């Protein structure tokens, strides 16, 4: 649980500092303006009730990330000394907090803690974490909610692949295999050009389908700097967050119940429903994907867009020199990551399958990188260093392993039966 917690926090921290470390040159004024904007907004911070981030914290994350050579692990939070221990407030402190909050409903938490110490409700030298008080106030519904009118403004990315939006549209029921299935269109749109980097109908909207569509989009149109998605489970998967961060893509989630930011992808779906689906006459999943690809190429991408005054493909290639191409090892970035400890017999288990690790990694906490459908190709890493690919354990071969007096391994070619009390491969 602690390892998952660290990954969640590191990925979130990268999403905050991405604009400062992605290689885009910003002058001092732009940096200051962007920094203030991030300090002023409300965040959904993993494993925390806080919603704001200070200027100093953001600058510290940037420094840690850059000094580590852009290593995501540099953003891992430090392990707490009281990890796993319950941190509670005593009854007298809780009553004092409630009383002061009702007396002063609009003051800040630091002011309340200071007042409690001044009035002697808690000893002057007592350490009372602000996060604990925030959590207690939220639990007691004592955090006042201010209703304000939001300042929403129309926006457009300055360059192609600055921002992609992605969402899912429900499609018709079609034949896939031997049965009829409900279909789902997973699509991406480039905010600047309105080009569709990739779109395909699937029989599921789960994380596996989304990751396939995402990989194809990157292969065809390069890497976006930001990916704006919904809050569904497929968009919250650890694999997507890890893949995006490793490729230097900031993953941005739309605020719950605030669909206004996804207007461009919703507008495309409306066009697909009104102009593509009515003319589709096929019956299978393969039919609709072939027809949809032709429609994108022949009609949508080549037709002048009402908002930009250009066709999506023309507007996209006008600044093609700004586009980051996908790396040659793109497929490796889409591998799942599992963390395991190597056993004393060199074995390491992944989904009930036993693999044999190098001797030097016995007792070490390692990373296993793999594709769901390629279990024969599993890479093992320790402290960001690769130790090659794992082999599945063959217990019959291990039965014939012998060691000489220097502990060197030799495989016996004879089908020998060990003598009583002796096991091959054991000293």
The gist of it:
The chain has helices spanning 2-21, 28-40, 55-67, 91-103, 109-118, 130-139, 207-221, 238-246, 263-276, 285-300, 312-317, 330-333, 395-398, and strands at residues 163-176, 179-190, 199-202, 226-229, 250-253, 336-341, 347-350, 353-356, 365-371, 374-382, 385-389, 391-392, 401-403, 409-411. With 427 residues, the chain is an alpha+beta fold.
What does this structure look like?
This protein is of the alpha+beta class and 427 residues long. The protein has five domains: 2-75, no CATH class; 91-139; 163-229 and 265-322, Ribonuclease H-like superfamily/Ribonuclease H (Nucleotidyltransferase, domain 5, 2-Layer Sandwich), CATH 3.30.420; 335-393, no CATH class; 395-427, no CATH class. It has helices at residues 2-21, 28-40, 55-67, 91-103, 109-118, 130-139, 207-221, 238-246, 263-276, 285-300, 312-317, 330-333, 395-398; strands at residues 163-176, 179-190, 199-202, 226-229, 250-253, 336-341, 347-350, 353-356, 365-371, 374-382, 385-389, 391-392, 401-403, 409-411. The strands form four sheets. A five-stranded mixed beta sheet has the order 3-2-1-4-5. Residues 82-86 and 418-427 have low confidence and may be disordered.
List key phrases describing it.
4-stranded antiparallel beta sheet, Nucleotidyltransferase, domain 5, 13 helices, disordered C terminus, 5 domains, 19% strand, alpha+beta, 427 residues
Helix-strand blueprint:
Blueprint lengths: L1 H20 L6 H13 L14 H13 L23 H13 L5 H10 L11 H10 L23 E14 L2 E12 L8 E4 L4 H15 L4 E4 L8 H9 L3 E4 L9 H14 L8 H16 L11 H6 L12 H4 L2 E6 L5 E4 L2 E4 L8 E7 L2 E9 L2 E5 L1 E2 L2 H4 L2 E3 L5 E3 L16
Parallel strand pairs: 1-4, 4-5
Antiparallel strand pairs: 1-2, 2-3, 6-9, 7-8, 8-12, 9-10, 10-11, 13-14
